[in-house]
UniProtKB/TrEMBL annotation:
<feature type="transmembrane region" description="Helical">
    <location>
        <begin position="122"/>
        <end position="143"/>
    </location>
</feature>
<feature type="transmembrane region" description="Helical">
    <location>
        <begin position="90"/>
        <end position="110"/>
    </location>
</feature>
<feature type="transmembrane region" description="Helical">
    <location>
        <begin position="236"/>
        <end position="256"/>
    </location>
</feature>
<keyword id="KW-0472">Membrane</keyword>
<keyword id="KW-1133">Transmembrane helix</keyword>
<dbReference type="InterPro" id="IPR012171">
    <property type="entry name" value="Fatty_acid_desaturase"/>
</dbReference>
<feature type="transmembrane region" description="Helical">
    <location>
        <begin position="177"/>
        <end position="203"/>
    </location>
</feature>
<dbReference type="GO" id="GO:0016717">
    <property type="term" value="F:oxidoreductase activity, acting on paired donors, with oxidation of a pair of donors resulting in the reduction of molecular oxygen to two molecules of water"/>
</dbReference>
<feature type="domain" description="Fatty acid desaturase">
    <location>
        <begin position="90"/>
        <end position="350"/>
    </location>
</feature>
<dbReference type="InterPro" id="IPR005804">
    <property type="entry name" value="FA_desaturase_dom"/>
</dbReference>
<protein>
    <recommendedName>
        <fullName>Fatty acid desaturase domain-containing protein</fullName>
    </recommendedName>
</protein>
<dbReference type="GO" id="GO:0008610">
    <property type="term" value="P:lipid biosynthetic process"/>
</dbReference>
<feature type="transmembrane region" description="Helical">
    <location>
        <begin position="63"/>
        <end position="84"/>
    </location>
</feature>
<dbReference type="GO" id="GO:0016020">
    <property type="term" value="C:membrane"/>
</dbReference>
<dbReference type="Pfam" id="PF00487">
    <property type="entry name" value="FA_desaturase"/>
</dbReference>
<keyword id="KW-0812">Transmembrane</keyword>
<feature type="region of interest" description="Disordered">
    <location>
        <begin position="1"/>
        <end position="35"/>
    </location>
</feature>
């Protein structure tokens, strides 16, 4: 069982534009190679090594996927129950933190599902949707067919990229707005599935609006989702049906069991949504102004937060602490990324293009982006 498209083409030609300054948080002596027009050129040695040194790491391990996802989900739901049932405020808060972090990890398997080949890990997509995607009103269709657009070489960082905004070049107030809006995500999802989906079943115009505007986990407000292909459309139907029934049950639950369970669950999911938004904020440097970029420029605009720091595994779980490496090998399973990173880091050293994507942590990255927005006019 292997992933499809495990490696990007090592030699990509075409337009290439990216930031050309040395990385503030990378090796001090590093500066990317530039072409004759002063733009970041592809580092072909790095791209070749990403392909050749990691050929044996492209196979997904079912035991790792199932074990990790099940433990995370079950721990999250058990802690959520503890937060709802506990009469002690501090115990409830402790349970809430555990629930948020565990369910956050379980939820982020949606990223793996957007890359996994349909024949790999039989039953995992269905199982994840039943245990995590639908209960958290974020079924996999909301990322499938969307996230892969972000990995298309000619779309990354352009206005056609659903997951890119030049945040580092925007006004300072765009950052708190970007993070704060995530607090509303759980309520917005209940409205989408409990109200808009049933209305869309009756009114085609509503259905079209819901699909094009409210059916993708994207951050680009100009992104409009295109019609789903036949294979995805089948999954959309059953995932939306079950999601709608669950959202209606949640909305009506206070009539039967009171408000506490719903409010606690919404608070836990809001924390999860904000944490994911913070992770998204530091997943890239967001310094591209809309032009197509080379693979190397995309890599350097993306972020690795490698060990030894252990905290990154909490806020960027399921391989997302190696986000830049993931952009070199989009379909490599998450459990193989640490070993792939070790091999490439050993191959190229601290003053290389590869090391230029390494950053020490979230706080440093937030400071960098915030400082950039303060200079924006």
């Amino acid at each position: 069982m292997t992933y499809q498209d495990a490696f990007v083409p090592p030699y990509s030609d075409g337009p290439d534009l990216g930031h050309t300054e040395p990385q503030d948080t990378g090796p001090s002596a590093f500066s990317p190679a530039l072409d004759s027009k002063g733009r970041i050129a592809d580092d072909k040695a790095m791209l070749r090594a990403a392909r050749d040194l990691t050929k044996d790491l492209g196979t997904a391990r079912p035991a790792v996927f199932w074990g990790d996802m099940l433990i995370s989900a079950l721990l999250g739901y058990a802690a959520l129950a503890g937060a709802i049932l506990s009469s002690n405020i501090w115990a409830a808060l402790g349970f809430g933190v555990v629930a948020s972090l565990s369910l956050y990890r379980a939820l982020l398997f949606i990223h793996e599902l957007s890359h996994i080949h349909r024949d790999a890990l039989p039953g995992f997509r269905f199982g994840w949707n039943l245990l995590v995607g639908i209960p958290m009103l974020t079924p996999s269709f909301m990322y499938e067919g969307v996230h892969t657009l972000h990995h298309q070489r000619t779309r990354y960082g352009t206005p056609e990229d659903p997951e890119y905004l030049p945040l580092a070049l925007m006004k300072w107030w765009s950052l708190p707005l970007f993070v704060g809006i995530a607090l509303l995500a759980p309520v917005a999802l209940i409205i989408r599935f409990a109200v808009l989906v049933p209305l869309g079943a009756l009114i085609p115009a509503v259905r079209n609006l819901v699909w094009t505007r409210f059916s993708a986990l994207s951050i680009n407000p100009d992104f409009r989702r295109r019609p789903a292909d036949t294979d995805l459309k089948t999954r959309v139907i059953w995932q939306e049906a079950f999601g709608s029934l669950w959202a209606i049950a949640l909305a009506l639950s206070p009539l039967a069991i009171g408000w506490r369970p719903l409010l606690v669950a919404l608070a836990v999911f809001s924390v999860t949504a904000v944490l994911n938004q913070l992770r998204t904020l530091v997943a890239h440097l967001w310094e591209n102004e809309g032009e197509a970029m080379t693979v190397t420029a995309q890599f350097l605009d993306s972020v690795n937060v490698p060990p030894p720091g252990p905290i990154a595994e909490i806020w960027a779980p399921v391989g997302l602490r190696y986000h830049a490496l993931h952009h070199l090998m989009p379909s490599m399973p998450y459990h193989a990324l640490p070993e792939a990173h070790r091999r490439l880091a050993a191959e190229f050293g601290d003053m290389s293009t590869y090391a230029g994507s390494n950053h020490p942590g979230m706080v440093t990255l937030l400071r960098r982006i915030a400082a950039s927005t303060m200079r924006a006019r």
